[in-house]
Design goal:
Inosine-uridine Nucleoside N-ribohydrolase, Chain A; alpha/beta; binds 2-(4-amino-phenyl)-5-hydroxymethyl-pyrrolidine-3,4-diol; binds calcium ion; two-stranded antiparallel ribbon; 10 strands
């Protein structure tokens, strides 16, 4: 049984790895890729998504451009981490597939409404603007998606402020909409993704695959490692977004706990903080859960397996 997913992303070094993992996994059927501003502007991340598609040999999958700014707040990008292009490091090829003419919001709605209920998993790895807009435009999608597995938030701490994670804090109103919908939702936040470190043995295993896509990941990780060292003092960079994809492939790789979740919208020092109520067992009917850790070895084995399966795509 494969799981059909829509990847809604802002590539982004770790988004690129998430796309490669989804494409290379035998357990996943990547049915659409949509983009959202975030790590860089919408034009840049959309072009990056198409360049990654070429490197990975992804064809026959619609790619659509989405929101260019948050619902309420002003646009903020993560150039300090992802560079001027949003995917600094490797040389990016010209895209070889066209963009779908639809807005990402419409592609998301169309895919969910055209497929059997309970078959499409949404995997957002950027700001939640497109997802929030989609469920407001077509509320029936809430009852039709299998689940939402998103990278964002944190139970403890943040990376864009003391309390808040980037994907959530740049559009907290969108996150609030998504967190309070009726669909099952798994928040794969920093508590889990800060364990997904690209350590030297991991990088050696990726390098040993010795294909175009594996060398691309190596070049991405070189830049990402330096940026993370300079900006946040990490010895090795956390590769956030593929953890959400890994959870879809094999939930046993991620430790999760059911808990009511919400997003801080009015805090003066805590805007965009995700609040998980872990005081006691989740109440009956709780549809949200939070990731608290990963199995590092099995997570990276999924990534290297996917790169092996992708092999050397035709140029
Ligand atoms: C990563 C990101 C943004 C800022 C930093 N400092 C690091 C991006 C990643 O693409 C990921 O989806 C999420 N946002 C992690 O916060
Ligand atoms: Ca991202």
């Amino acid at each position: 049984m494969t799981t059909r997913i829509i990847l809604d992303c802002d590539p982004g070094h770790d988004d690129a790895v998430a796309m490669l993992l989804a494409h290379g996994s035998a357990e996943i059927d990547l049915v659409a890729v949509t983009t959202v501003y975030g790590n860089q502007t919408i034009d840049k991340v959309t072009r990056n998504a198409l360049s990654v598609a070429r490197i990975a040999g992804i064809t026959g999958v619609p790619f659509a451009r989405g929101a260019h700014r948050p619902l309420v707040r002003t646009l903020e990008t993560a150039e300090s981490i992802h560079g001027e292009s949003g995917l600094d490091g490797p040389t990016l090829p010209e895209p070889s597939i066209p963009l779908d003419p639809r807005h990402a919001v419409d592609l998301i709605i169309d895919v969910i409404m055209e497929n059997e209920p309970g078959t499409i998993t949404l995997v957002p790895t950027g700001a939640l603007t497109n997802i929030a807009m989609a469920v407001r435009k077509e509320p029936r999608i809430a009852g039709r998606v299998r689940e939402v597995v998103l990278m964002g938030g944190a139970v403890h701490g943040g990376n864009w402020s003391a309390t808040s994670e980037f994907n959530i804090v740049i559009d907290p109103e969108a996150a609030h909409i998504v967190f309070h919908e009726s669909w099952p939702l798994t928040m794969v936040g920093l508590d889990a993704t800060h364990q997904a470190l690209a350590t030297p043995p991991v990088l050696a295993a990726i390098e040993a695959i010795d294909t175009g896509p594996s060398r691309f990941v190596g070049e991405l990780m070189d830049f990402f490692a330096n940026a993370y060292k300079d900006a946040q003092g990490f010895d090795y960079p956390p590769v956030h977004d593929p953890v959400a994809v890994a959870y879809v492939i094999d939930p046993s790789i991620v430790t999760v706990r059911k808990a009511p979740l919400t997003v801080e919208l009015t805090g003066t020092a805590t805007l965009g903080m995700t609040v998980a109520d872990l005081r006691s067992e989740a109440p009956e009917g709780c549809t949200t859960q939070v990731a608290l850790g990963i199995d590092h070895g099995r997570f990276w084995a999924l990534v290297t397996d996917a790169l092996e399966r992708i092999g050397e795509p035709e140029a």
